[in-house]
Amino acid sequence: MSSFITIEGSDGSGKSTLIGRMESHLRARGVPFKLTREPGGTPVAEEIRDIILKPNRKLSTLCELLLFEAARADHVETFIRPALASGQSVLCDRFTHSSLAYQGIARGLGEDVVKNLNRVATGGLEPDAVIWLKLDPKIAYDRIESRGGEKSRLDSEAMAFHLRVFDGFSQLAANDPERFIVLDASRSPEQVFQELLAHPNWVRHGDLR
Ligand code: TYD
Q1: How far apart are the C-alpha atoms of 209 and 189, rounded to whole Å?
Q2: How do residues 65-93 score in pLDDT, each as one tens digit?
Q3: Which CATH superfamily is domain 4-208 in?
Q4: Is the CB of residue 156 below 6 angstroms from any atom belonging to ligand 1?
Q5: 109 alpha carbon – ligand 1 mean position (Å)
Q6: Ligand 1: which of 67, 102, 113, 144 to mutate, judged by most atoms within 8 Å of the beta carbon?
Q7: Where are the domains positioned within the chain?
Q8: What is the pTM of this model?
Q9: 4-8 β-sheet, strand order
Q10: Residue 204: pLDDT above 80?
Q11: How far lies 203's CA from each of 19, 99, 126, in Å?
Q12: DSSP character for 149?
């Protein structure tokens, strides 16, 4: 049995570190899996990613959503579904819940519009579990600042925007407790990883343990 797991969390939440640990864990257990990301994961979707994330680019809200969905349609059809069909599990760094939180809730396009477009883009494919690295946006901001480097177009948004994204994920998680694995990302990477392994919604995916 293969599982489709998505990982959500802002820059600074330790998402890349957690994904690295998950990769080593699955590899050590001989679990067949693919790791991928959104926006991106296929050549076309990676090109669309460059358009979306380019700093200082002006993009209307609906155009932004449709670009995420266009990239997703290609990614699901040509990468995620074939991997799952061949018996591999898929770990995806961000997926449909990012569109709901960022474009639907934080940008105000509405959850219904985004749900509908998500359904069209994915042909109804939904993640078996969504890991959300929950971190106060102000702490995430401080972590990013201390690290330095260029911020993407979305990372450069005002704090009010990041607070709306945070509230968005909180709502999505509260409304879908069977699917969400909410981890306290203010803790150390090791504690976060142990919290994941012990979470009932992770334990349910016996193939990944
Ligand atoms: P990325 O550099 O991958 O950042 P992160 O480390 O935060 O994942 O940039 C992806 C950005 O795109 C991130 O700010 C979240 C945003 N995003 C959306 O707004 N909607 C979406 O549907 C997806 C997949 C991502």
Answers
A1: 18
A2: 999 999 999 999 999 999 999 999 999 99
A3: P-loop containing nucleotide triphosphate hydrolases (3.40.50.300)
A4: no
A5: 17
A6: 102
A7: 4-208
A8: 0.96
A9: 33-37, 89-93, 4-8, 129-134, 180-184
A10: yes
A11: 17, 27, 19
A12: S
